[in-house]
Structures are given as structure tokens and as C-alpha cells.
């Protein structure tokens, strides 16, 4: 009995994991294929290969006249095409997945930073720089947010938290540089969660170190705080669950208890009209559709209550 239960639990876990993997792959494919689902992409691919194989078989049998031989060669052709297609698509898919994961992580980090106050962003930068450079930084004042020392060299950091659309201007850098030069600090660093005006990195190379959002993400990765593949998959699954809830809500607006009588009344009216007009067949179809919606609404409401009851018991 125990073995049977453990086998059932193992099977359930396996099926759950397979479903999870399919949902993740479905998410990636929708991103890559412009909204097409996993099943749609798979079906399209199989149909195209089947048509190719069928045409190949027709040409082969017309040339040779041997049905069995043509069938065997055609099946070998199909398996070869499937294997080659899978290998090529797998490479492209994995490359795209890396890009999508990068975008997901970047958006996650952006979202986290957007919730920070200016002081919180300064502390965020401080923690990253202390781990990345192995230096202890202290808060400063005015145009300098943080100062630290390494090998008798004083470092100064200025943080700019802004929107992703804004760019840090030359004036912002110049004000910071003037302050650094006045105090006599050896190394100045400007950090932003956005980007700098075009050409500024080249202009200030060797004078002021400019750290934009991409450089900040790189540092996060280097200190080991970059979200893992498993973290990204959890984000994808959570998005899938949110979308599922939204779809369920939209279904609820169509299939609800309040709509049952409306659908029945509409069905009755359409049926009466079908006996009075020349388009009787059209009205009969619409009456049948309205009646079907009423029946579905009744079952939907029942299952919703059943699911809610099971959730409460759990």
C-alpha cells in the first residue's frame, strides 16, 4: 500500500514538473514566435514536415514505381528532417532563451530600483561596491554620496537615481568632478540606474568612471547576487499563474450566474424570431448558441463553487 502511494505521489510530482516545464517553454515560444503557443508552433512544424514528406513520397513513387521502397525512404527522410530541425531549432531556442532571461532579470532589477528612495538607492550601490571592490564606504555630503579608501587612494561615488528614459547630463558629471577636484580625491565614480548622454563615457575616460545600469547589473552578477535560472523560471511561472487568473476572471464575466437568465431570454427571443423571418436558419443557430452559453454558465458556476469549497477545506 505504501509503495503504491509513494509511486502515485512520484507520478503526480513528475506530471506536475512536466506541466511546469511545458508552461515555461510555452512562455519562451510566445516571446519568440510573437504570441504563438507551444502547441500551435509544434502543430505548424509537424504539418509542414508532413506535407514535405508527402510531396517527397509522391515524387519518389512516380519515379520508381515501388510503393514500399518509396514509403521507407520517405519515412527516413521525415526522421532526418525532424532530427535536423530539432537540432537547429534547439540551438536558436537556447540562444533566444538567454536573451529573454536577461531581459526578465533586467526588468526585475529595474522594478526593484524604481521602488527605492534616493537614500535607499545610495545604500544599494554602497552594498554592491563594497562587495565588488572589497572596500568599506561611508556616507559623505553635498555632491558626493559615498567615500572609501583603498591602498591610500580615496574613492568618491555620486549616485543618480532617475527614470530609465532620462539620461545623466554633462552638467551633472561636471559638478561632481569640480567637487572631487576641490577636495583632492583620486578616483571619482558616478553611478546611475539609467544611462549617460551619448559620448560621455569616451569623453570622461580616465577622468571619471561612469557606471550605468548595464555596468551595475554586471557587478551584481559578479558578486553572485544575480538571479539564477531557477529564479527566472519562478518569475515565469508566477506570471503564468497571474495570466491564468485573469483569463479565469474574463471567463467569469461571460459564464456567470447572472448571465444564465439573460442567455435563456435571448435564446427564447431568437427562437421566436426564427419563426417570423426569412432568415430562420440564422436565428435558430444564434438561439442554439445562446442556449449553449446558458448551459455552460450553469456548469461553470457549479465547478467554481466546487473548487472554492475544496480550497477552503485545504
What would you note in describing this structure?
By secondary structure, the chain is an alpha/beta fold. Helices cover 73% and strands 10% of the residues. The protein has three domains: 2-113, no CATH class; 118-222, Trna Endonuclease, Chain: A, domain 1; 255-313. It contains ten helices and seven strands. The protein has a five-stranded mixed beta sheet, sandwiched between helices. It has a two-stranded parallel ribbon with strand order 4-6.
Question: What's the gist of this structure?
Answer:
This protein is α/β, with parallel strands linked by helices and 314 residues long.
Keywords for this entry:
7 strands, 314 residues, 10 helices, two-stranded parallel sheet, alpha/beta, Trna Endonuclease, Chain: A, domain 1, 5-stranded mixed beta sheet
Topology at a glance:
Blueprint: H1 2-32, H2 38-64, H3 67-114, H4 118-133, E1 137-139, E2 146-150, E3 153-160, E4 167-168, H5 170-183, E5 187-192, E6 195-196, H6 200-203, E7 208-211, H7 213-222, H8 229-254, H9 257-274, H10 280-313
Parallel strand pairs: 3-5, 4-6, 5-7
Antiparallel strand pairs: 1-2, 2-3
Helix pairs in contact: 1-3, 1-8, 2-3, 4-7, 9-10
Transmembrane segments: 40-61, 67-88, 260-279, 285-303
InterPro entries: Restrct_endonuc-II-like, Restrct_endonuc_IV_Mrr, tRNA_endonuc-like_dom_sf
GO molecular function, one term: DNA binding
